[in-house]
Amino acid sequence: MVFLILKRCIVPKSADSFTTLIDMLPGQTGTITEIDHGHGLVRKLCVMGIIPGKKVVKISQILVGGPIVIRIDDHDLALGRGIASRIKVKIEK
Amino acid sequence: MKKIVLAGNPNVGKSVIFTRLSGIYAVSSNYPGTTVEISRSQISRDGVKFELIDAPGTYALEADAEAERIAGKLIDEADIVVNVIDAGNLERNLYLTFELLEKKKPMVIALNMWDEVQRRGVRIDIQALSQILGIPVIPVVATTGEGMKQLLQDLDYARVPIIVPSSHQERWHEIGQVIQAVQSFSYHKPTWVDRLKEATLLPISGFLIGLGVLYGVFWVVRFIGEGLINYILDPLFYRFYYPLLLGLDRHLSFSPFLRTILIGHLVDGKIDFEQSLGLLSTGIYIELGVVLPYIISFYFILGLLEDTGYLPRLAVLLDGFFHRIGLHGYAIVPTLLGLGCNVPGIMSTRILESKTERFIISVLISIAVPCASQQALIFGVLGKHGTMPVMLVYFILLLVWIILGVILKYTVKGYRPALILEIPPYRFPYWKTLLPKLWLRVKGFLKEALPIVSLGILAVNLLFMTNLFPYIAQAIGPFFQKYLGLPSEVSLVLVLGFLRKDIAMGLLAPLQLTVKQLVISSVMLAMFFPCVATFMVILKELGAKKLIQGTIIMLFASTLTGIILNLVL
Ligand SMILES: Nc1nc2c(ncn2[C@@H]2O[C@H](COP(=O)(O)OP(=O)(O)OP(=O)(O)O)[C@@H](O)[C@H]2O)c(=O)[nH]1
Ligand SMILES: [Mg+2]
After folding, report:
1. CA-based nearest distance A22→chain B, Å
2. CATH number at residue B53
3. Nearest Cα to B286, choosing from B369, B294, A6, B179?
4. Which one of A60, A67, A73 has the shortest CB-CB distance to B202?
5. ipTM, 2 decimals?
6. Is residue B316 helix, strand or coil?
7. Do B180 and B94 contact (CB within 8 A), yes or no?
8. Among A52, B27, B182, B317, which residue's beta carbon has the most beta carbons within 10 A?
9. What is the mean pLDDT of residues B33-46?
10. Is residue B190 one of the residues assigned to a domain?
11. Global confidence as pTM
């Protein structure tokens, strides 16, 4: 079961993306390439539509270890830093 | 009777639809996780009766949080599933829809928030969507009631979906295809309003706005509360109620016993609303004249914050800070609800998936978050001595909250998930949901508070009459005098505070305490044992073992704080 859930959320990786949501600058747009973490988290993000291939805009990064705010499909989401550091993105020029 | 279950993602308007269809108010607010319990109601249409059920929101059918598990179970029991969708967020919502399709239950889709979609220039081809999924799709606006009739009619056409969802891996891909077939955008350029909305989420402007909002809330709650007291309630009490009581007092002269119970004793030959301690004098006055106005003003402001959608933003801003005490930002929701009443505050921890986190927040709320009754009491007994002592009590409680949080972070082991939070768009608070919510909460307070406070005051009077009181005072009094610097009578106040915190005010007032003693008593009263209702809800939600652990922490923390305060103040 867990395996099934895991599988549905994985999309083939692309090779040239090493930036994470943390390193992205507010205002930048990018595409999620990979979510690098245990299946529990991958699944949780997946059911909310945070999956490889999605376009994201980074809105803000709250100070003192606060979360990252991103926009996907015109809707805002906040992600804790630990999670954000595991979401790899390819930044659009 | 057929069971209709409202199922959908969090914050899509299920509870507003429930209210519309059943006429029974279910609490709705503009943040995910408002509903944590099940509401049921009977509705009838063309003479046929249905049972309508409002479920907590969920993103998927197998989930971790208690609230989501409840939703999953309900869907299995359903005869008809009404899948409520936020039309403005169609793609994300369809994920759950596809999971529901697999359940092979008769289904209809209520495409809610249709007004917002039209305003934003999103076009959705309803017919195409209905054809692809093979079930009725009805556009509705829950807040105005548009489309509700149609929704009821179309329950007859609820169908087991024809679509056969392919393997799970393809799910988002498949949803993408549906979206392409039915939805088109017209681009809209961000305006200055959009920028202003965004500013509440940016690091620096966000914090400044957050501070402003919190300060404003505090100020407005006091302003409305005191306004109600000074201009409405006190005049009513002194001009109309007082003469009534006097009249009653004369008629009761035949029975000193009844007189003491109902009116209480006279202070300087007069009935004193705060000190006489009769059921009809102090009992009624404290509840309706002192606590009620703050309940009204607090819940009014909380309702505004909830319905505009500012709370999730506050959660985002505070997340980093909350992490230092082992929680995440969303803990602000239970905490704020706890400032009204600890019971719904602790209930709302059901949206959290970790038991550890639920325990920590519940303990913190019951110890260091004063409910509106306690706060009214703090204002009531300390307000006369200026703003400083009042602020001091809040400051001490905040400090306790932080220190206790840090200690719990390092001593209570367990799973603490990080923040993943959907931030809803700002919405205009709608008086049709705002006012019923306020009324529901005020009614809840009255139903709960009046009987228990009356009981408490009765108990106090009987204790005084039967001379049982000296025994209690003798037993714990010396400790109070020696370590807390408080007269032994305060011990009784603390014990009775267990019934309800607002009783304690009438008891503290006649003791002629110094400001220091009042500060210590107020802090101890807030920390020491929550009221019975809070006690029961912790037992129900977390079990006896956790309740005992929590109680030990509580006794320890409150006693220690009292002793320290007595030394340093
Ligand atoms: N503009 C608009 N707002 C709506 C509509 N329906 C609901 N809302 C608002 O959306 C917010 C969420 O509504 P709720 O009924 O609490 O949502 P819910 O699905 O019960 O949410 P949870 O209990 O958290 O799962 C509230 O602020 C409502 O006033 C609608 O049709 N149009
Ligand atoms: Mg709800």
Report:
1. 14
2. 3.40.50.300
3. B294
4. A60
5. 0.85
6. helix
7. no
8. B317
9. 92
10. no
11. 0.90
Contacts for B167 with CB less than 8 Å, ≥ 6 apart: A8
Beta bridge partners of B5: B53, B81
> Which token pair is B452?
């228990």
The beta-carbon neighbor of B418 closest among A46, A61, A82 is A82
The single-letter code of the amino acid at B121 is: G
Pick the most confident of B138-152, B338-352, B483-497, B526-540. B138-152
**What integer pLDDT is reported at residue B505 of this predicted model?**
67
Q: Do B244 and B175 have their domain in common?
A: no
Give the model confidence (pLDDT) of B494-512 as tens digits.
877 877 787 776 788 778 8
| d(CA B55, ligand 2 centre) in Å | 7
State the total domains in chain A.
1
In this structure, are B386 and B331 located in the same domain? yes
Pairing relation of β-strands A55-61 and B183-185? unpaired
Query: What is the 3-class SS of B159-225, one letter each residue?
Result: ECCCCCCCCHHHHHHHHHHHHHHHEEECCCCCCHHHHHHHHCCCHHHHHHHHHHHHHHHHHHHHHHH
Rounded CA-CA distance B509/B225 in Å is 20
pLDDT band at residue B157, thresholds of 50, 70 and 90? very high
Q: What are phi and psi of A49, to 5 degrees?
A: 85, 15
